[in-house]
Amino acid sequence: MTQAPRGAGIGLRAPHHGEILARRPLLAFVEVHSENFFAAGGPLLALLERVRSLSALSLHGVGLSLGSADPLDERHLASLEALVRRFEPALVSEHLSWSSIDGRHANDLLPLPHTREAVAHVAARIGAVQDRLRRRILVENVSRYLDFAESEMPEWEFLGEVARRSGCALLLDVNNVQVNAVNHGFDARRYIEALDPALVAEYHLAGHEATPWGLVDTHASPVAAQVWALFEHALATLGPRPALVEWDADIPTLDVLLDEARRAQSALDHALRDAATESPA
């Protein structure tokens, strides 16, 4: 396993593969969707070998369906295990959601009810994944557009309980916090302040779209001003952690992504300076 990155990175997307290799931009890390690299060989794995020589690597999964009532997918786990063994990434993450039931898959990351039963269920499954991979993974809070009547606790408490019970770390998606706060009427800063800093290992930043019905998590635009402000609050409250800019649709030029990463890096550098100033001599 390579050492965890300390700065900002971007998601590696197909339109930028050649340019990343040619320009070799200075990035703390790059993130790829794990499932895109499950093949046993071929040009994509060769590309990933070259990219890994330039920056630390994060594997971010979208298909493990941690919250499903189906058994964990053995083929998926085996492919993920092989990828982790081959590339020894700095970070391995998944989503606190479900996307399959009765063997049928939805093309979405669906939320879970915030119940004690759900905590126990998903924590056990995360534990099984960590045992299989022989490493701690990160789980990400997801955007959601409904509430469950059965929920027994607020989202931030559910997230923390899952992490504590399973022993995993948190990938805090700041954009998703903002989206859910607006859509469900809670205080985004209170969410941040309620989390245990020891559990948070990474941040995600992304764009969203405002609609008459609320905010939609699109990953198709620059990070919004409110999300940048919430990110700075998270840095001051929880501390500096590696931060990843996601952009998955209407993908812009590489320079636009690098500008977003530079802004994230600037915020991280400022937080690190503040932390150093506040530390006792």
Notes on the protein architecture:
This protein has 281 residues and is of the alpha/beta class. The protein has a single domain (8-275), classed as Alpha-Beta Barrel (TIM Barrel), CATH 3.20.20. It is built from nine helices and twelve strands. The chain has helices at 17-23, 43-52, 74-87, 116-133, 155-166, 174-184, 188-194, 225-238, 254-278; strands at 8-11, 29-33, 56-60, 91-95, 98-101, 104-110, 138-140, 169-173, 200-205, 208-211, 214-217, 243-245. The strands form three sheets. An eight-stranded parallel β-barrel has the order 1-2-3-4-7-8-9-12, surrounded by four helices. The chain has a two-stranded antiparallel sheet with strand order 5-6. Helix 1 (17-23) links the parallel strand 1 and strand 2 (29-33). Helix 4 (116-133) packs across helix 5 and helix 8 (225-238) packs parallel to helix 9. The longest helix has 25 residues, at 254-278. It is globular, with a radius of gyration of 18 Å.
Would you kindly provide a brief summary of this structure?
The protein has about 280 residues and is an alpha/beta fold.
Which features characterize this protein?
281 residues, two-stranded antiparallel sheet, alpha/beta, TIM Barrel, globular, 9 helices, eight-stranded parallel β-barrel
